[in-house]
Amino acid sequence: xxxxxxxxxxxxxxxxxxxxxxxxxxxxxxxxxxxxxxxxxxxxxxxxxxxxxxxxxxxxxxxxxxxxxxxxxxxxxxxxxxxxxxxxxxxxxxxxxxxxxxxxxxxxxxxxxxxxxxxxxxxxxxxxxxxxxxxxxxxxxxxxxxxxxxxxxxxxxxxxxxxxxxxxxxxxxxxxxxxxxxxxxxxxxxxxxxxxxxxxxxxxxxxxxxxxxxxxxxxxxxxxxxxxxxxxxxxxxxxxxxxxxxxxxxxxxxxxxxxxxxxxxxxxxxxxxxxxxxxxxxxxxxxxxxxxxxxxxxxxx
Amino acid sequence: xxxxxxxxxxxxxxxxxxxxxxxxxxxxxxxxxxxxxxxxxxxxxxxxxxxxxxxxxxxxxxxxxxxxxxxxxxxxxxxxxxxxxxxxxxxxxxxxxxxxxxxxxxxxxxxxxxxxxxxxxxxxxxxxxxxxxxxxxxxxxxxxxxxxxxxxxxxxxxxxxxxxxxxxxxxxxxxxxxxxxxxxxxxxxxxxxxxxxxxxxxxxxxxxxxxxxxxxxxxxxxxxxxxxxxxxxxxxxxxxxxxxxxxxxxxxxxxxxxxxxxxxxxxxxxxxxxxxxxxxxxxxxxxxxxxxxxxxxxxxx
Amino acid sequence: xxxxxxxxxxxxxxxxxxxxxxxxxxxxxxxxxxxxxxxxxxxxxxxxxxxxxxxxxxxxxxxxxxxxxxxxxxxxxxxxxxxxxxxxxxxxxxxxxxxxxxxxxxxxxxxxxxxxxxxxxxxxxxxxxxxxxxxxxxxxxxxxxxxxxxxxxxxxxxxxxxxxxxxxxxxxxxxxxxxxxxxxxxxxxxxxxxxxxxxxxxxxxxxxxxxxxxxxxxxxxxxxxxxxxxxxxxxxxxxxxxxxxxxxxxxxxxxxxxxxxxxxxxxxxxxxxxxxxxxxxxxxxxxxxxxxxxxxxxxxx
Amino acid sequence: xxxxxxxxxxxxxxxxxxxxxxxxxxxxxxxxxxxxxxxxxxxxxxxxxxxxxxxxxxxxxxxxxxxxxxxxxxxxxxxxxxxxxxxxxxxxxxxxxxxxxxxxxxxxxxxxxxxxxxxxxxxxxxxxxxxxxxxxxxxxxxxxxxxxxxxxxxxxxxxxxxxxxxxxxxxxxxxxxxxxxxxxxxxxxxxxxxxxxxxxxxxxxxxxxxxxxxxxxxxxxxxxxxxxxxxxxxxxxxxxxxxxxxxxxxxxxxxxxxxxxxxxxxxxxxxxxxxxxxxxxxxxxxxxxxxxxxxxxxxxx
Lengths: 301, 301, 301, 301
Description:
Family (chains A, B, C, D): Belongs to the 6-phosphogluconate dehydrogenase family.
CATH superfamily of the largest domain in chain A: NAD(P)-binding Rossmann-like Domain
Radius of gyration of chain A: 23 Å
Mean pLDDT of chain A: 97
Shape of chain A: globular
Largest interface: A-B, 79 and 79 residues
Pathway (chains A, B, C, D): Carbohydrate degradation; pentose phosphate pathway
InterPro entries (chains A, B, C, D): 3-OH-isobutyrate_DH-rel_CS (IPR002204), 6-PGluconate_DH-like_C_sf (IPR008927), 6DGDH_YqeC (IPR004849), 6PGD_dom2 (IPR013328), 6PGDH_C (IPR006114), 6PGDH_NADP-bd (IPR006115), NAD(P)-bd_dom_sf (IPR036291), Pgluconate_DH (IPR006183)
Number of domains of chain A: 2
Pfam families (chains A, B, C, D): 6PGD, NAD_binding_2
Protein name (chains A, B, C, D): 6-phosphogluconate dehydrogenase (Decarboxylating)
Low-confidence stretches of chain A: none
Strand content of chain A: 5-15%
Oligomer: homotetramer
Distance between the termini of chain A: 63 Å
Helix content of chain A: 40-55%
């Protein structure tokens, strides 16, 4: 089928290509001219404006938005709305907060448009291996997009599904990322323990490779970790600095709001925050207190 | 090659069968006569005593011990020693503490025997899918056992390896289980959040199945979880009670001894302990304190 | 000086009385007629309506609002505004979110009123021992209320202060409560360890009493705990169920928003949430997973 | 009464002086000649050897050992034993592991000596304010030392007590320190949040001072913190590096061994360990994983 795609970055660009390979007509736009040109070169339709994107699609249209969460999504929708017509479908495939998705669904629905929220996982490997998609929205609308999902997914009947009403897609993706934080932290702690156990001369790259087959912890994350460790066994040149992209903290907020105790997902987020702290006041305070009551020496800066 | 196997339970029994299917001669003993009979019925040699086990093997012998950690391992070794001869190999494939393995290696070596510690992962699926094995011990001894490892592993060249000197096998397996605790806890928290989000009517079984393909969290644990949720979506009849088997807490102790901060593995253990606490004094104390300073009502039992 | 006080509950009622004892004229209102009657009986002016409260005060007026956070505060302000005149001061002494306080300050200021946010600590003991007050707002307005603060505080020059501009009072009180959670949890865990160490036959009440003098952990919380343990050493009849009142979770949200890692305050909140969970899905999931990969028996409900 | 004191450091020196001021005859020894000289100058009996110490005391003797835990305690006892006689009392007032104290009690008792374990809290302030003492050992022996405890304590009947049989003193002190870690961490996190909230321009020294009077968090630790912040409001020159002295980690091990979930005490220890980690492998691993699956940029060292 035909689909518009706004945002041709790491994720969007690969998705466009996977859709093209699957026989769909993709009309793509990005502020980055190079990305558009690359799309055209690959055999899809790269356009220079949102107006052109809409013009190149026949109604009822489906436009997949793949831009950073927050204002960029609202801006894109605002730009599209006057150009689109009733029944056209907006798809937000990015990492939006599910509450925003519920709001957008309500607002667009009130004006006669359709809106679907798609939590999209798979990272840079999606082009080759397919994307896992968690979809929230009205059943009939999701059904209309079936050909798109069947192509983007690892297999037509695997790795995607409507998880519930509007918001359910981004909600499930949000928690997916929270779980991802926990798994990553668990692995990272384990390898740090190995590194510290000097007398056993353990080799993290070798261990990761062994675990890929037959172990309880075998997983895609481990596969990638094994490859990365093979390429750079001592992680030379890499700073111990870990960003977080929003969904982890939303998961923590949501767990607390729902009165669900989620210590490991929470701790994984806190640990990432900690990785970015320098000149830590908490630790200085502890040092000062120890000195104050026990006369313990303080390390000086 | 020939191998003796002591302990024909969930793990040992399956391993014996995988070895037999791989063309090895397995002589097996278990206090449970049924287990021995089953072994014989399958085409291996089930025997009624440790003495018979040793008699049925030609020197230099290799005896794989697959019994609970601690005293049972020492008892088995003590019983075997007078029957074995110099150069014979003891293999501890169970979940022993690596410090014990280092001790046993030293003691046996001093008496002319060989000892190898093998951390064995794979659970009840190992017969079909193979075992992941992390091996500690002397290089030449591990090399002698190569045919055994190649058969037990998922593939001859995959899923096993000598990770270091004596103790390195059980050490790596110990941390493997710590990581496993963290991964499990992360998934479990995520599904608990889904269950609590009533208004989105999420379906844990469906979500687990979607994630199996293309998501960042895809893993063997998730595959098993998806199957379990399919069979019992609401986990009916299952108590919220989680044992821990020793290796998780050893990992926590080790991390602290090594001065490695491992909050997520640690928290996963603490949470399991919490699952078994009833009539919680900590929480009662908090309730009493709130009442004492703020006059807040206490819930009565 | 003269002061109006709306909300004569556990906190407000005691504050009114402390103010009266300090020589101030207190005009108090509460929907609960008993509370108003009690105020009058004590020698202050209990009134039946917000209208009467305002009428009984001479401009420029100061009205201290001591009601639950959220809608009740906004409702009270809305009811007061038409009755008050420019320059009159609204004081929110409850546990409001500091963001709301900043908003209310802005809105009231725009209409010519003054607004001060006061985080008030001291619980049911404040009448006797005085209140600790953290105050946010304009300096000149705080200064006008000095006689009130000097009376409510433990001593005229101790236990109160303007901590910053609007919002700073409730912000500091919010974090105060977060710290309180952490301290309480630390004590509670310690006493739970004592109870579990059966062979040493420790006596929590005795230990708490010993620690009150000379120890590093001596504190007001410990004093109250010692008394509570003396009265009920085994905490008989008390359920292990711990509410949380909002400020703890706001502290956690704020720490994350500010990118400050605060694991202990966070964990204290999570543990309170955990105390209220029954039929825990997280723990059931863990049990199911252990069974799925390792064949471990599941405890049945 | 008469007492010998071995170890005249920060703690022991002050205790000797408090005992002298209380009318006791103190015979003190330390390898540091200056410490001994200072003792003599103050009016007690400083001696140059353990032999002289014993000689200067009349049987039945009481010798208080105030040296680092572990080997130094055993060495001191070993040196004393041949010089002492049946019925003499050994007192370990340091931070020994309670399991060692139980062992030492058993060994000394078997040889006709007495042994008492005293957990001593109060730090450098003990000389002035008295020490909190938690005492384990036989009732009659503790009773014989009553004059000593009454003098060292903040008041004759306050701040000390026999908490149980041998080991109970050091056990209670161990957990006391675990609680202390939790309280310190809670305060430190709170002040770090204040520092990060730039727009409110909060002043940690002022807040600490306000809280000292009337707040729920008022405590001795807060008093010391307020003073330290007054002296150095921005904690200039202090490194964010926090040692831990053993008792915190023993508390964590003990909680796990007893199957008591103690997340806050545990997390406080982990956070101290974290403060000493540099070039963190865990965080590098996380960075590498994010790059591997999502193509996220890694910060370079």
